[in-house]
Structure to design on (462 residues):
């Protein structure tokens, strides 16, 4: 282990204009695994941890504790509020000389206009944190940043206490390593709004036939009960082992863990380049390679799915048109195959205009027609009217940004909310004029599978 850099800054102004102090120290370590680090933070930081891994598996993030939180419930200002507070916090901090920059991690709810229901009552419409201890694993190296943000002077004693805590957590993570966990035991699974869901599909297809919208994504939920409180590290370990080809994420908030394994990138920004993906249109995997290829070919030629997909491509392309000096979009979709499902997939990339930021891109892109519909405003109204649940963070943007403005957000689908001995799982699908309630219902079952498996649950056909 070797200590690299520490910096203290007394010139910061926070929102109420009082001076805040910002202390950062980065430690570079040769070997440190993410989930053992997450677990080692349980004693001091349970309820204030997060986990993130990108699809390519070359960037992993774990946060323990909240050195600084940024929340917003302002319907139309939440992205700018987060952006402004983050910039304000970093003003004057010489982060460029740090081996590892401070990172802000968090999520936005799907729709602040829907209101918050019981299961989501702990969450704001924007929930972000700079971790007290932030682990970044990239290029096969691990970095632990320790952050203190305080209105008072930061004492030497405070710093050494926190660094001792950091060293203890690292030690525990290294000596204990990755645990093997037994799957949680589900004792009850219910579908709270099955009839309402089926009815909503008929209502929405009628409204689409009536010309009120072109496409609307409708979701539903499953509820699970367990014999006992389920350990968040267990759940994240199951997802980590079972869903290697997806974005993996977990965000604690008090007694809640929102977690998932999403195939879908909303946007990533690196050195002024932006990358997004259009993912919409789905079919199951085949048991044999031949059957799987035949299903894939069917999807690539299916008019309904191609149409659902095209709404997403058109909308994401027009966002890139507005924010980029140049961009590329392939002419036709390809297949994205993940464990339980195959999707139509079109990657989009471009060079951002000067001054355009990742949170501006998130605001522009969310929700794409893969999660909302087309046209956006009308589809959102119909989701508010017909969908029999509150999505909370499901289908919202989740991810991170650093001090220089690079970052990445996934669309938080294939996700669930764990609350001690209960969990809620969410899945939806694109509805167009000729959608059938029963086949949409079956498609959502496939989309529940990743979370159900991680939580020890099963569908009837397994
Ligand atoms: C809404 C979900 O998936 C979206 C993303 C990919 C494919 C979709 C589809 O084919 O319907 C959905 O638009 C979900 O997984 O809950």
């Amino acid at each position: 282990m070797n200590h690299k850099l520490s910096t203290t800054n007394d010139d910061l102004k926070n929102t109420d204009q009082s001076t805040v102090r910002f202390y950062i120290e980065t430690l570079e370590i040769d070997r440190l695994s993410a989930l053992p680090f997450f677990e080692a933070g349980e004693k001091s930081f349970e309820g204030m941890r997060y986990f993130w891994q990108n699809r390519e598996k070359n960037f992993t993030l774990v946060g323990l504790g909240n050195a600084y939180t940024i929340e917003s419930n302002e319907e139309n200002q939440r992205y700018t509020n987060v952006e402004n507070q983050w910039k304000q916090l970093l003003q004057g901090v010489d982060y460029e000389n740090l081996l590892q920059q401070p990172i802000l991690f968090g999520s936005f709810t799907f729709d602040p206009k829907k209101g918050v229901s019981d299961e989501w009552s702990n969450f704001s419409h924007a929930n972000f944190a700079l971790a007290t201890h932030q682990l970044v694993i990239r290029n096969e190296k691990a970095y632990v940043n320790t952050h203190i943000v305080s209105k008072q002077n930061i004492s030497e004693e405070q710093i050494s206490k926190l660094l001792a805590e950091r060293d203890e957590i690292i030690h525990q993570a290294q000596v204990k390593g990755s645990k093997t966990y037994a799957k949680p035991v589900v004792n009850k699974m219910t579908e709270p709004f099955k009839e309402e869901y089926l009815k909503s599909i008929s209502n929405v297809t009628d409204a689409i036939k009536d010309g009120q919208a072109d496409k609307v994504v409708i979701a539903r939920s499953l509820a699970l009960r367990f014999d006992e409180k389920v350990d968040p590290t267990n759940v994240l370990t199951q997802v980590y082992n079972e869903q290697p080809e997806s974005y993996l994420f977990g965000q604690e908030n008090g007694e809640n863990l929102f977690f998932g394994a999403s195939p879908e990138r909303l946007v990533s920004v690196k050195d002024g380049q932006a990358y997004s993906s259009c993912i919409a249109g789905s079919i199951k995997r085949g048991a044999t390679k031949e059957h799987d290829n035949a299903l894939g070919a069917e999807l690539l030629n299916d008019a309904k799915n191609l149409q659902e997909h095209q709404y997403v491509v058109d909308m994401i392309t027009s966002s890139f048109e507005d924010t980029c000096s140049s961009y590329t979009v392939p002419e036709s979709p390809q297949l994205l195959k993940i464990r339980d499902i195959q999707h139509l997939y079109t990657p989009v990339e471009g060079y951002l205009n000067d001054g355009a930021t990742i949170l501006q891109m998130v605001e522009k892109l969310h929700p794409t027609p893969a999660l909302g519909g087309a046209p956006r405003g009308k589809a959102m109204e119909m989701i508010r009217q017909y969908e029999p649940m509150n999505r909370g963070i499901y289908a919202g943007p989740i991810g991170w940004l650093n001090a220089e403005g690079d970052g990445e957000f996934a669309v938080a689908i294939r996700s669930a909310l764990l609350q001690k001995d209960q969990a809620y799982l969410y899945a939806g699908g694109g509805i167009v004029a000729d959608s059938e309630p029963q086949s949409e219902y079956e498609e959502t079952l496939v989309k529940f599978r990743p979370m159900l498996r991680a939580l020890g649950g099963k569908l009837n056909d397994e």
